């Protein structure tokens, strides 16, 4: 029985990694894949391990999470190769016959392990990508991120501000321009279908419904998701109408972080409809929203001008945001837990 080995950080896993593992498995009976991580890395090893289990369900591929804080380069430690040999042997059930890599370290590693090295796409011709490139520019390398984990890398952009400032109109325009998803204000949909007037008990289902719509929309978004308001807005209106709070809502309104926020100013005419009644409080509500943004420790881009000016300015800002590296907070257990509907 031929036993093969693939090891790497998978930081994050990409389609080149999956190609390597697929081709390696064709050439051995059993394949061990070591997922190596360090505590200081911004995508936790435990999360990467969970991703790999979801991406590679083959029972003949054994996935092992390696937690040792080993040196990363030969110059880091005089016993570099021996340290890694001991780590690999201790995490393998049987002797290794072949090590498969797409890296230059394959030959010296195979020599240390006393096995054969088979390089696969070492020139990165089939999959010209690295995990570093994805971390630094996820949207520019979107095609190489496996579909089941893409929602972690979606840049979530919130449009915020008081009522009748054009959030819905702009969210639609931006989604069309960037060919991706947007989610409408859940409260409007919820209240338009409600046969009785709004009351305090509506705020928790509105908050949960809005968060659920964000989670679902992120799964199919093309790198960016535009949110017409978020839970911070729900919190502001709960305080304005009922002077109360809901702990579940407060925790998420203040704790959830987004890649960026566009704050829409009140310099366009207020338009009345059946769900708007604060036209006389525009300045006060703008102040409430600015305070809420400060309380949640969120930076934002201010959007001013008429509708065309707002659209042009917002597109310029989003084009800047598209160039940003991954948002480290998105991968923390705290943020993942806050996005669970309980």
TrEMBL record:
Q: Where is the Cytidyltransferase-like domain?
A: 6-71
Spell out the CDD domains in the cross-references. NK (cd02019)
Instruction: Spell out the SUPFAM superfamilies in the cross-references.
Output: Nucleotidylyl transferase, P-loop containing nucleoside triphosphate hydrolases
InterPro entries listed in its UniProt record:
Cyt_trans-like, NAD_biosynth-regulator, NadR/Ttd14_AAA_dom, P-loop_NTPase, Rossmann-like_a/b/a_fold
Q: Which Pfam families match?
A: AAA_28 (PF13521), CTP_transf_like (PF01467)
Ranges where the NadR/Ttd14 AAA domain occurs: 156-310
Extract the NCBIfam families matched here.
cyt_tran_rel
Q: What is the official name of this protein in its record?
A: ATPase
Question: Which species is the source of this protein?
Answer: Leptospira yanagawae
């Amino acid at each position: 029985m031929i036993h093969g080995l693939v090891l790497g950080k998978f930081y994050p896993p990409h389609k080149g990694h999956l190609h390597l593992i697929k081709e390696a498995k064709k050439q051995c009976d059993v394949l061990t894949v070591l997922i190596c991580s360090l505590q200081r890395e911004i995508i936790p090893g435990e999360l990467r391990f969970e991703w790999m289990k979801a991406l590679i369900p083959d029972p003949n591929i054994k996935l092992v999470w390696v937690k040792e804080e080993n040196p990363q380069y030969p110059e880091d430690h005089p016993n570099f190769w021996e340290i890694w040999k001991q780590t690999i042997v201790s995490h393998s059930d049987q002797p290794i016959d072949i090590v498969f890599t797409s890296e230059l370290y394959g030959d010296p590693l195979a020599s240390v392990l006393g096995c054969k090295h088979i390089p696969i796409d070492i020139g990165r011709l089939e999959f010209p990508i690295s995990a570093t490139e994805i971390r630094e520019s996820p949207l520019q390398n979107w095609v190489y991120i496996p579909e089941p984990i893409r929602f972690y890398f979606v840049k979530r952009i919130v449009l915020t501000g008081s009522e009748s400032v054009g959030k819905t109109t702009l969210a639609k325009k931006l989604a069309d321009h960037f060919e991706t998803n947007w989610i409408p204000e859940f409260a409007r949909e919820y209240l338009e279908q409600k046969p009785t007037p709004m009351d305090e008990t509506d705020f928790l289902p509105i908050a949960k419904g809005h968060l659920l719509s964000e989670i679902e929309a992120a799964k199919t978004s093309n790198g960016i998701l535009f949110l017409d308001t978020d839970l911070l807005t729900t919190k502001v209106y709960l305080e304005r109408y009922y002077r109360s709070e809901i702990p579940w809502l407060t925790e998420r309104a203040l704790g959830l972080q987004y890649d960026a926020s566009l704050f829409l100013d009140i310099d366009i005419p207020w338009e009345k409809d059946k769900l708007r009644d604060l036209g006389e409080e525009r300045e006060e509500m703008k102040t409430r929203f600015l305070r809420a943004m400060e309380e949640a420790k969120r930076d934002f881009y201010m959007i001013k001008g008429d509708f065309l000016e707002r659209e042009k300015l917002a597109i310029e800002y989003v084009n800047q945001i598209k160039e940003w590296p991954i948002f480290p907070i998105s991968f923390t257990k705290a943020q993942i837990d806050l996005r669970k509907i309980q």
